[in-house]
Amino acid sequence: MATEAVNYKTLMTELHEGKYRPVYFLMGEEPYYIDLISAYIEANVLTAEERDFNQIVLFGRDTDADTIINTARRFPMMAARQVVIVKEAQFMKDIDRLHLYTEQPLKSTVLVINYKNKVLDKRLKLTRQLQSMGGLFESKKLYDNQIPDWISGYLAPRGRTITPEASLMLSEYLGADLSKLVNELDKLLITLPAEEKSITPAHIERNIGISKDYNVFEFQGALAERNTLKAHRIALHFAGNPGENPLIMIIGTLASFFIKLLQFHYTRDRSPQNLASVLKVNPYFIRQYEGAARKYNRQQTAQAISLLRQYDARSKGVENGTTGPDELLRELTIRLLRL
Question: Which of 14, 18, 118, 317 stands 20 to 30 A from 108 (CA)?
Fold first, then answer.
């Protein structure tokens, strides 16, 4: 009977306890967890001496199912088990033929298949077998609104916290790529003085290079407050630094904000807890939406969304002529403030 894909915490708990499954099929759009599981197995299942004869790494571009099956069916030499790791398995042409092995895997082999940025077709016999034996792990891409909580969760066991503003700065500028986020967070942790337990926008500006005064969230806040002077000052800075502040990214962030603001207008239960749930934002930011709702009524909010769609299209060359990104941003800023 088929079961759900096993989760990361369960797998890592088993691995730390020395409990090894015969097959780990690691798939999904988020490579971070796939890399963590595969790297742990590669470094810890066998001793250094055992690896020489009993750890084999294959690559999907250069191998096929029959080679993997024959390798996995070998018996270990002077060790309790062997480890076979297949990297870049998403490039294999005959991946489903691995069902010939998974229907009766060797107990002395730990077979690890890295299948990144894709998932197996649920109709395949291989998929059904992996589900049945509990060897299937799916690493799903996180939604943008999940990233701030993920960052907090990453920092907590390391004895650090992060302010909501700093968390959003990181998530917006680095996106949902967990490997990039971890790389930057680890650099921050190294440079953060021991007595400073919370990461702030100032730390990010100093160590990552994202300005705490000239970033898309400050721009969003200035527009939300209809602070004309501040909004134009930030827009001017963006225009002078287009590589650091791409227009498409700015428009995307503003569009998300105004869409949530429209949701705010149509939400009857205005309690902070409900609004945070409906808008999928940290409760800390509800005050910004409350303030923005007083500056932009429903009609103005809808007009703002329409404007952003128009300028998104123009930024991509649709009905734009020769207007550059800097001029488009200045136009957009003026029109949003005049709604």
Answer: 118
Instruction: Give dist(CA 59, CA 153) in Å, integer.
Output: 33
Q: Which of 313, 308, 312, 301 is nearest to 339 (CA)?
A: 301
**Beta carbons within 10 angstroms of residue 98's beta carbon:** 28
Q: How many CB atoms within 10 Å of residue 215? A: 26
- The whole-number mean pLDDT for each consecutive block of 10 residues of the chain, a chain of 339 residues, reads 69 95 96 96 96 96 96 96 97 95 96 96 93 91 87 94 90 85 92 90 86 88 95 91 85 94 96 91 90 96 96 88 88 95
Q: Percentages helix, strand, coil for the chain, rounded to the nearest 5?
A: 60, 10, 30
Q: Are 29 and 137 in contact (CB under 8 A)?
A: no
- Core vs surface per residue 276-308: b (16+ CB within 10 A) or e: beebebbeebbebbeebbebbeeeebbbbbebb
Q: Please give the pLDDT value at position 2.
A: 39
Angle at 138 between CA 30 and CA 117, to 5 degrees: 40
> What type of residue sits at position 223?
L
User: Which domains are assigned to the chain?
Assistant: 8-138 (3.40.50.300), 144-207 (1.10.8.60), 216-337 (1.20.272.10)
> For residue 174, what pLDDT is reported?
81
